Amino acid sequence: MQIKTVLIAAMAACATAQDISKIPACAIDCIIKTNPLSGCNSVLETLDFPCLCLTGEEYNNAIATCIVGACTNLNDVLAMVQWKTDACALYGVVWP
What we know:
By secondary structure, this protein is mainly alpha-helical. The chain has one domain. The chain has five helices and no strands. Helix 1 packs across helix 4, helix 1 packs parallel to helix 5 and helix 2 runs antiparallel to helix 4. InterPro entries: Extracellular_membr_CFEM_dom (IPR008427).
C-alpha cells in the first residue's frame, strides 16, 4: 500500500520532455489507458507535460494503481516515479 501512496503523490503526471524511452515498458500501457482521465490533450508522443503534471486525484489514483499492478519489479515502479518527478520539475512542479 505504501508504494501506491508514493505513486499517487509522485505521479500527478506521467509525461515530460524527458526521453520517453526511459519509461519502464510495463508503465507504457498505463499511461495510454489512463490518459483520458487526465483531462489533458495528449498522446504518448506529444504529451501535454504541464497539464499532466497538475492532474487531479482520479487520474493519479488510476495511473498509480495501474503501474503497481503492471510493474511487478519494484525498480521499475521506482524508475517511473523518478522519471515523473524529474519531468515535472522541468515545469516547476516539485514533488516531495
